[in-house]
């Protein structure tokens, strides 16, 4: 979306992951065997925690779209005078976004995260520029 999320990720990467790659961090801290790290996509997002749909859209992201969420630092990027929250979201390479019939979408498609978090998303940055999070 904009360069704000990319800049915040770069500034906070060591706080989020330490010296680990994203793949190693996930393996060390979460049970994520069901996500193929060689094809998964990771997105750093800035969200509106005060929106009434915040919890519902995060729950839906995890349940309907097989997303995994890692808490990031609170931010003050200027989207909300009260501040925002950041997260790293990890998804399989593609997911079904159809409501009545199968409609697969690549999770590295910019429209994907807007569809999943339509009301609470301020900004996003695709961490891996090619499929897979092994080197991120």
Name the beta content range: 25-35%
Chain-averaged pLDDT: 85
DSSP E strands, number: 6
Overall 3D form: globular
Separation, N- and C-terminal Cα atoms: 19 Å
| Secondary-structure element string | HHEHEEEEHE
Q: Report the radius of gyration as a whole number of Å.
A: 14 Å
Describe the sheet with the most strands. Answer: 4 strands, antiparallel
Structural class: alpha+beta
How many H/I helices?
4
- What strand order characterises the main sheet? 2-3-1-6
Low-confidence runs (pLDDT<50, min 5 residues)? none
Helix percent reads: 25-40%
Core attributes:
single chain; about 140 residues; alpha+beta; four-stranded antiparallel beta sheet; two-stranded antiparallel sheet; 6 strands
Summary, kept brief:
This protein has four helices and six strands. By secondary structure, it is of the alpha+beta class.
SSE layout:
Blueprint: H1 3-17, H2 22-29, E1 41-47, H3 54-65, E2 68-75, E3 84-91, E4 94-96, E5 104-106, H4 110-116, E6 121-126
Antiparallel strand pairs: 1-3, 1-6, 2-3, 4-5
Please, could you describe this protein's structure?
The chain is α+β, with helices and mostly antiparallel strands and 136 residues long. It contains 4 helices and 6 strands. The relative contact order is 0.27. The model has no long low-confidence stretch (mean pLDDT 85).
């Amino acid at each position: 979306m904009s360069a704000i999320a990319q800049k915040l990720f770069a500034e906070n990467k060591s706080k989020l992951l330490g010296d680990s790659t994203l793949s190693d961090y996930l393996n060390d801290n979460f049970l994520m065997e069901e996500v193929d790290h060689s094809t998964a996509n990771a997105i750093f997002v800035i969200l509106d925690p005060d929106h009434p749909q915040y919890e519902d859209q995060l729950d839906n992201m995890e349940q309907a779209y097989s997303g995994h969420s890692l808490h990031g630092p609170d931010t003050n990027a200027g989207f909300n005078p009260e501040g925002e929250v950041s997260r790293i979201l990890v998804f399989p390479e593609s997911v079904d976004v159809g409501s009545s019939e199968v409609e697969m979408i690549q999770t590295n498609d910019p429209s994907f995260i807007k569809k999943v978090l339509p009301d609470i998303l301020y900004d996003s940055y695709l961490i891996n520029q090619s499929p897979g999070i092994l080197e991120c």
